[in-house]
Amino acid sequence: NAGVTQTPKFQVLKTGQSMTLQCAQDMNHNSMYWYRQDPGMGLRLIYYSASEGTTDKGEVPNGYNVSRLNKREFSLRLESAAPSQTSVYFCASSDVRGNTEAFFGQGTRLTVV
Amino acid sequence: GENVEQHPSTLSVQEGDSAVIKCTYSDSASNYFPWYKQELGKRPQLIIDIRSNVGEKKDQRIAVTLNKTAKHFSLHITETQPEDSAVYFCAAPTGGGNKLTFGTGTQLKVEL
């Protein structure tokens, strides 16, 4: 099984450009998450989808949008990238919301110049 | 609030010594407490977890203890080895259990 697959692995954007990070899981999980990881800040939740058809804001949602396309796929969109969005982004999925093991994708290293 | 606080932020131990990392949580409804290990450049991966109906769980050299009354849980690593060097994160479900909130991480360094 591939588990959780994220694309791309690396990306450099210019300020103001837009992009979409893709995430797909093949474990039939109900819940999916997007986190960003910055030095000393841990993993901060951007948006999550507790089940197919629902999305909710996490701790740091400003500047981002998400789409739960189907049960497998959960995408994160940056409409107008800013240098403050330079970070490592992780997608994750779990079977039963926050009450079971979360499986992470390999991460996307995004640099906004 | 829905905070998960983790201490210390860095921890350096000699090989063979024990390491302890502590977390506190604020959501009294939380009932699942996982610990993740993240090696440099890699994704976080679960190493051990505990549910609120038990107070301690062990898996070889690692153990987790839970004190629900005080709302804190701890990761214990015994006989540390260089390969234990990594960043460790605690987490707890928040938002009615709909999401997983992480602590800020502990950089553990095991020195020879």
Walk me through the structure.
The complex is a heterodimer of chains A (113) and B (112). Chain A is built from no helices and eleven strands. Chain A has strands at residues 4-7, 10-13, 19-25, 31-38, 42-49, 56-57, 64-68, 74-78, 87-94, 102-104, 108-112. In chain A, strand 9 and strand 10 (102-104) form a beta hairpin. Chain A starts with a strand and ends with a strand. Chain B contains no helices and eleven strands. In chain B, strands 2, 4, 5, 9, 10 and 11 form a six-stranded mixed sheet that branches. The mean pLDDT of chain B is 94. Chain A binds chain B through residues 31, 33, 35, 40-45, 48, 50, 56, 58-59, 90, 92, 94, 97-102, 104-107, and chain B through 6, 9, 31-32, 34, 36, 42-46, 49, 89, 91-95, 97-105.
Keywords summarizing the entry:
A: mainly beta; 7-stranded mixed β-sheet; 4-stranded antiparallel β-sheet; 0% helix; B: 112 residues; 5-stranded antiparallel β-sheet; 58% strand
Query: Strand share of the residues of chain A?
Result: over 45%
Structural class of chain B: mainly beta
The major β-sheet of chain A equals:
7 strands, mixed
Q: For the terminal residues of chain B, how far apart are their CA atoms?
A: 41 Å
Q: How is the quaternary structure best described?
A: heterodimer
**H/I helix tally of chain A:** 0
Rg of chain A, Å, rounded: 13 Å
- Helix % of chain B is under 10%
Shape annotation of chain B: globular
Choose one word for the global shape of chain A: globular
Low-confidence stretches of chain B: none
Could you spell the SSE succession of chain A in H and E letters? EEEEEEEEEEE
Biggest interface goes to: A-B, 27 and 27 residues
Q: How many β-strand stretches of chain A?
A: 11
Derived structural class of chain A: mainly beta
Integer average pLDDT of chain B: 94
Report the total helices of chain B: 0
Strand fraction of chain B equals over 45%
